[in-house]
Design brief:
The chain is α/β, with parallel strands linked by helices. The chain folds into two domains: 156 residues, 3-Layer(aba) Sandwich (Rossmann fold), CATH 3.40.50.300; 67 residues, no CATH class. The chain is 39% helix and 26% strand. The protein is built from ten helices and ten strands. Strands 6-7-8-3-9-10 form a six-stranded mixed sheet, with helices on both faces. The chain has a four-stranded antiparallel sheet with strand order 2-1-4-5, covered by helices on one side. The mean pLDDT is 90.
């Protein structure tokens, strides 16, 4: 479904990604672990077409995404929910959600159906659909960010640090939602620092360190790895 081969990304003289290769199969929920500065967000920006690669290839199915505009990548079925949510705080919840369907603006009926599905997934957003997005709690704003991404009708959903800054109970609820999105058929690549919560819902995992893949494998194997536990779980 999604493949990266030898992806290298430079910012001037700084190498953010160095020969990164990974695979996400259809229907998988794959976790990318890594500390701040490891390159997770840089990889997501490269996949989404927001940063031009120094070298390597990124494919969605058989389609080479190199040089594609971000809007074309979204229309092809690859949608990112960015770190920090990136909402328009003065706009209503509903308008923020509808922005996610902009690339499908010629197809209004399916968008209405997806909006109803988003409200079914996050009932509080239906209640607050007319409220400014900036007036919501952190957890509710993350719901809007995920809902907006779903409005883009993703085949592959990139989630960049969705638990960042959220209370533990909200984190638990958020990961439950992510697992349900995957169960309903959406392929997910999840970048996270919260290793324990992420590995509990993942099919496979990669560890990114200093812009390189340091480890990959099944979640239970990574949870048993002493280095991973010390670095990301604290035990």
């Amino acid at each position: 479904m999604l493949s990266c081969d030898g992806v290298t990304l430079d910012y001037g003289g700084y190498r953010a990604l160095d020969d990164v290769s990974l695979r996400v199969a259809p229907g998988e929920l794959v976790v990318m672990l890594g500390a701040n500065g490891a390159g997770k967000s840089s990889l997501f920006l490269a996949i989404s077409g927001l940063r031009r690669l120094t070298s390597g290839t990124i494919r969605l199915g058989e389609r080479n995404l190199a040089g594609e505009k971000p809007s074309a990548i979204v229309a092809a079925g690859l949608v990112q929910c960015p770190e920090g949510r990136k909402l328009f705080p003065g706009m209503s919840v509903e308008k923020n959600l509808r922005l996610g369907a902009y690339v499908h603006r010629g197809d209004p009926q399916p968008s209405e159906a997806i909006l109803d599905e988003v409200f079914g997934m996050f009932p509080i957003l239906r209640e607050k659909r007319g409220d400014p997005a900036g007036s919501l709690s952190g957890g509710q704003q993350q719901m809007v960010a995920i809902g907006r991404a779903l409005m883009g009708r993703p085949k592959v959903l990139l989630l960049d640090e969705p638990s960042l800054g959220l209370a533990p109970l909200v984190v638990k609820q958020m990961f439950g939602v992510i697992r349900e999105i995957n169960r309903q058929g959406t392929t997910v690549l999840l970048a996270e620092q919260n290793a324990y919560a992420a590995l509990r819902i993942a099919h496979r995992a990669y560890v990114l360190e200093s812009g390189r893949i340091a480890m990959e494998g099944a979640p239970d194997l990574l949870l048993k790895d002493e280095g991973i536990r010390k670095a990301y779980i604290g035990a």
